[in-house]
Structures are given as C-alpha cells and as structure tokens.
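Let's sit down with a protein and look at its sequence and fold side by side. Which protein we use is up to you, so please pick one and set it down. Label the sequence line and the structure token line clearly, so we can match residues to local backbone shapes. Go ahead whenever you are ready, and we will take it from there:

***
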Amino acid sequence: MAKAAVIAQSTVSELEGGRKGTRRDQVERIDNALIAHGALLSAWDAAFSPTGMIGYFREVAEDEQIAVEIREYALGLVPGLVQVEQYARTISELASPYIPPEQIEQIVQARLYRQQVLERDHPPMLIVLLDESVLLRRFSKSEVMPAQIDHLLSLSYRPRITIQIVPEETEDHAGLGGSFRLSTAPDSSPFAYVEGHKTGMTLREPEIVASYERIFADLRSFALPVPASRSRMEEIRGKLS
C-alpha cells in the first residue's frame, strides 16, 4: 500500500499508529491506493469541513497536524488546541448564536479532533502565553472556567507543553494588539496567523513573521515562569470553588 501511495512504509505505519500527522494530499494517495472510493478522504474532509471548521482556518488546521512547534499568544480566549469541551461549546454558541445545535456540535468535535495532535507519541512543541485576563473571564455557566483552568493545569505538566501567564499588570506590552500564532512545520519557514472576529489571515512574508517572533519573545520575557504561572492558575481556580 505504501508503495502504491508513493509514501514511505514508515510514514504509513506512523499514520496508522497515530504517531504522525498528515496532509490532505497524502490522505488522497492512501485512499486511492486502498481503493477506498473516497472513504478516507471524506473522513478527512469531514474533520476539516466548513461546517466544522471556518474556511479561512482550514490551512492552519491542516498545517497543525504536521507542525513541529506551535507558539501561541492569547489575549481574548483560550486557544483552541487547549480548550476543554465545555469551554469550546460555550464560546462557539456565543460566537454563532443563530446556527443550529447540530452545527455547533460539528464545530466542537472538529476542535477536539485537532487536539489529538497533542496525544501523539511525539507531539509538536507547544508554547502558550495566556494574558491573565483570559483566565479572569466569567461565563453564565459557572462550571466552564473551573473546568478550563483544571485542564490547563493538567496540560502544564506535560513535557512538550509550556503554559505561561502574562500578568494583568504588565504595562504597555505589544500583545495588546491581539492574539496570534506562530507555527513551524518540517522543511518550511515559520508562518504567523492572526484572527479577527469573522476573518483570519495566514502571514508568510519573512519580515512580518519575524516581527511577530520578536513580539512573542518580548511577551515571554514578561510572562511568569512556568511554576509561578501554575501557581497563579491555581489561585484563580481556588477563587472559583
């Protein structure tokens, strides 16, 4: 099968074992080699479909599956890769109050599917900088933020995940311009992704990416060290009990 799909046998084994991500073109070749009549490709497209995933984010989500490093700064909301299910559902309902429940469920399940990249034997390095205001946000469903902070605390102990808090009292930092992500895949230069309320942009120009890398480095210098960040999350979580 690997030979027919023009993919190394080791790659196929890693894909089958969930140890490696893939792109749509590889899925298409495997589908053809197996004479699966589009079944595998349909499953891939369902996971990254417009109903479950906003179209402009699809490229980012696909690259996420093969990334070796993801760096993300969050100013407004917890990033999708580290959202707990209750949180993902709540913010999806708030962002799209007029779509039917079944479509909300598709959005939530697509987000949970993306998170499987963190469960691999060798997941990407993930560095998340959270503005403290993200953790202080409250929802009408009181169980949402406690569950979300518990999840962040649990993730913070994983060896390839770093979660740091940028304190609320940090003055005049460049991150006030908004959330962004930097992603690096094998054999390619890093790219930046920024998102607004109803749109998003993938930025690959080297000078623009470099400017976001400088901002991320500055923000990380302002952030609390990992143990202090964990303590701050525990403190905020304690006040929600």
Notes: The chain has two domains: 1-47, 54-238. Strands lie at 69-74, 125-131, 161-166, 180-184, 191-195, 200-203. Residues 1-47 form one domain. Confidence is low (pLDDT under 50) at residues 1-5, 14-19.
